[in-house]
Write a structure and sequence with these properties.
Radius of gyration: 26 Å
CATH superfamily of the largest domain: Glutaredoxin
Number of domains: 2
CATH class of the largest domain: Alpha Beta
Strand content: 15-25%
Shape: globular
Order of helices and strands: HEEEEHHEHEHEEEEH
Length: 215
């Protein structure tokens, strides 16, 4: 009688053990399935699905028309600022220059990557002013200008915010986002480089994304 009682008492324990195992693995499966995806990129805030850029009507530093079609067939690093800016704006362009240099080990990608500077100071930054300014960093870079409405049309699509120009002690100030937009060869916004970034991380993310894009 005692043995039978022992067998009976062990049966509930066995099923409790099985239930616990099922709960554990069920929770593990559910957690992995519904956990937020961790980006494989270092500093790029990827945008999925990518967003098509449209209604771009600007001028480059040569006075040529620039529309969304000219984004195509290039990896475009797009940043906003103004030529009369503080050192912060210039540092972003120096950063972009170092990113291009970091792509030297993949010549095709380096040739396909382009830096585009968009002016927020339409009144002062004429094509001629922009050409002198941007050539200092690289004659391969593009600089764009347009009326305030045209500039805003592009900035809003890249999530760039900026304030109205103000002058303090004779110096112009325009508060603006310092993020760098990444527009792919298909003319779509692929992501944003925001926060604390460096040329090594940006170049690494760009290489990874371009490889995935080709595949």
């Amino acid at each position: 009688m005692q043995r039978r009682t022992g067998i009976r008492s062990s049966i509930p324990k066995f099923w409790l053990f099985i239930a616990a195992v099922l709960v554990f693995y069920g929770g593990y499966y559910w957690g992995n399935r519904h956990a937020p995806k961790v980006s494989a990129h270092k500093v790029l805030r990827l945008i999925e699905p990518a967003v098509a850029i449209s209604s771009v009507k600007l001028q480059d530093q040569y006075g040529n028309r620039f529309t969304e079609e000219r984004f195509k067939d290039h990896w475009n690093l797009v940043l906003f600022g103004y030529t009369r800016a503080t050192e912060t704006n210039r540092e972003t362009l120096y950063l972009a220059t170092r990113v291009i240099n970091r792509l030297a080990d993949i010549p095709d990608l380096q040739r396909a990557t382009r830096v585009i500077f968009v002016s927020l100071d339409s009144e002062y930054d004429t094509p001629a002013v922009l050409k002198t300014f941007i050539d200092y960093f690289s004659p391969e870079f593009l600089a764009l200008t347009g009326n305030p409405g045209e500039v805003h049309a592009l900035a809003s699509q890249l999530g760039v915010r900026y304030g109205k120009p103000r002058t303090t002690m004779g110096t112009l100030h325009i508060d603006h986002s310092t993020s760098i937009g990444l527009i792919g060869p298909d003319g779509k916004l692929r992501g944003l480089f925001t926060g604390l970034v460096d040329e090594v991380s940006i170049a690494s993310d760009l290489k990874q994304l371009s490889e995935r894009y080709l595949n």
